[in-house]
């Protein structure tokens, strides 16, 4: 599937970016983007979990890899779970925290992903809790 072009507004000017059919990976750093679902022509077709981390953060990368590897244990298609380096998301770059992640567990416009979230919410929550414990190097204690 070919890449498609789209635009996003920032400070009154338009910024172009390329959207691939698989994931939104390469965005211009001078632009601000918000994604909650696939672009309209791909609505319902994309699946997967993305764990975003600030590209230059060693701790962020380590945490993202832990979360992504653990999510692969519960997500139906493990190959669709990825740790994604990023420098454009304000949530990742405008922080003083030592480690920041943005977890996109599923595409909410995909019926299979939505059903997976609904049917596995307890398992997903436990998996995320285990990931936090793994990252911090502490024992996970069942509630």
Mind explaining what this structure looks like?
The protein has 143 residues and is α+β, with helices and mostly antiparallel strands. It is 30% helix and 21% strand. The chain has a 3-stranded mixed sheet. It has a two-stranded antiparallel ribbon with strand order 1-2. The longest helix has 16 residues, at 121-136. Residues 1-28 and 32-36 have low confidence and may be disordered.
Which properties best describe this structure?
three-stranded mixed β-sheet; alpha+beta; two-stranded antiparallel ribbon; 5 strands; 143 residues; globular; disordered N terminus
Radius of gyration: 16 Å
Overall mean pLDDT: 77
Distance between the termini: 46 Å
Number of helices: 4
Percent in strands: 15-25%
Major β-sheet, in short? 3 strands, mixed
In which range does the helix fraction lie? 25-40%
Order of helices and strands: EEEHEHEHH
* Strands in their spatial order, largest beta sheet: 4-3-5
What structural class should be given to the helix and strand makeup? alpha+beta
Low-confidence stretches: 1-28, 32-36
Number of E strands: 5
Morphology: globular
């Amino acid at each position: 599937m070919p890449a498609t072009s789209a635009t996003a507004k920032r400070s009154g000017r338009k910024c172009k970016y390329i959207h691939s059919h698989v994931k939104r990976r390469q965005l211009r750093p001078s632009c601000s983007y918000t994604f909650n679902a696939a672009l309209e022509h791909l609505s319902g077709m994309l699946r997967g979990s993305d764990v975003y981390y600030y590209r230059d953060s060693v701790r962020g990368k380590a945490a993202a890899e832990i979360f992504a590897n653990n999510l692969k244990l519960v997500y139906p298609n493990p190959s669709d779970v990825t740790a994604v380096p990023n420098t454009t998301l304000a949530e990742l770059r405008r922080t003083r925290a030592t480690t920041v992640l943005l977890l996109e567990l599923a595409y909410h416009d995909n019926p299979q992903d939505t059903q997976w979230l609904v049917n596995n919410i307890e398992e997903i929550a436990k998996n995320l809790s285990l990931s936090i414990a793994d990252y911090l190097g502490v024992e996970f204690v069942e509630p």
